Fold each of these.
Amino acid sequence: MKNTLRSFFYRQRFLAACLLLSTALFRTDHAVFAETRYVEQPQHTLLNKIWDISAQQFISETELLERILDGKYLLLGEHHDNLQHHQHQASIISYLYEKQRHASVSFEMITSTQHDLLQQHLWQTTDDFISILNREKNSWEYTEFYKKVFDNTLRAGFDIHPANLPKKHLMAYAMQKEEIPNDIQQIIDVAPFSDQQKTSLQNEIIAAHCNLISADSSSPMLSIQRIRDAVMSLSLLKSQSNMPVLIAGASHIRKDRGVPFYLSRQELKGKVITLAFVEVQQEKTQISDYHERWGSQQLPFDYAWFTPAVDRGDPCEQLRKRFQQKHAK
């Protein structure tokens, strides 16, 4: 009996450690750098091109912007540490304002408690806004990467909504120490995953952790991803604007099992448009070369905008060190 309890205790500690790393690191598109450094590849054939995935053809930026106006929901998927992605987002927000679309913007980078803080305090500038966000401990580099996006959103007078939960709640829900709120659970319940979707997400989680975790350890992380996607979906559904916009990591906006999948189970009025900013890789010069990264037969978005890639070194080496430190404690 003692051995059983001890085994359970250590397993719970290990899962908690994995979850703690997951909430910080299972942003397959996230890394924090003091300065953005891009991989030099100016001659890449896909660089700065926009691919219409259903039509299987390239389109211009002007064509893309015109098509965005035909949608009701706009989902922008990013690599969190790629400044060019945020510059494109800021330009799109300004374009919506110029075209007199009354939009709202939901951010994966803002939690419900941060939003509460914003409601409780007076602020006038974007710097004030960021200062209040930083009162809750987080790993987002708001000033470096998101200031221009916040600037343009605030200047346009668009409402800003949270699209994430505090880490402690995500972990408690995943570990089944707290009940998932009813409104979030309902979003999940009406969008059950098939075995294929579960396996696909599980494989992505394991790959994002450089194959350092087991399938068993990935299960609570799968729950976290489901909860976060449901929270993002709910943020959009609650918006009263005529174009709710979501800014999140690209994995969250994939149509097959991300936020669009949850939205498709709701009675929506209007089209959901997904635009992912995809980093080019030197050896990958064909669209089909990027399918494997997403574990699908084609890119799981409506549009892909190819951009320079950030030089991140070897993220797996960094992750291995962090896992070793966790296990050593």
Amino acid sequence: MSGKALIVWGGWDGHEPEPVAKVFAEVLVKEDFDVELSHSLDSFLETDKLKGLDLIVPVWTMGSMTGEQSAGLIKAVSSGVGLAGCHGGMCDSFRENTDYQLMTGGQWVAHPGNDGVEYEVKITDHNHFLTRGMKDFKVKSEQYYLHVDPSNRVYAVTPMPVAEGPHTPNGRFEMPVIWTRYHGKGRVFYCSLGHNESIVRMPETTEIMRRGFLWAASKAD
């Protein structure tokens, strides 16, 4: 096997966590990963097992973790296990947990216009493995407004505002869509696309996530 991956799914059903987790499992199996799917945050308590993984994929919108669960996940990533996820399944999770937010590099705060907004995703780095050869594309979904860590390395953005909201008077700006960072020795990858299974199965999203998984698991640079 190329690596070992754990996908932990649950939380708010509106993001279709189980179907999305299965799509991610399909992607990883095609890349020769040994994949385990879990529907329990107690998976983060198995610290020795976690440290033997190459990749952890959270698909868990909102919810809460215990201190022990949080510590287990964060210690695993800090030790060198990769973390990769998308949309609310990674960056609208465990809202009260600032240690988790520090690790992921961002937190959802709004999606102006809600679902069904058509917006553009602009590739800003055409030389990195994550986005090499990819072209700008449009998506009709939620356009995520995130509070973002300034130390993130950003590879794609979306121009805002598209839908009107209280942010509109601030003028035009670009919101990060794809980023990476490090947390200790661990690689962290995030993509804000992925509201439901249909968006995850878009060719562009699937390919971005495939590359993000490989990068976070230290299988590509």
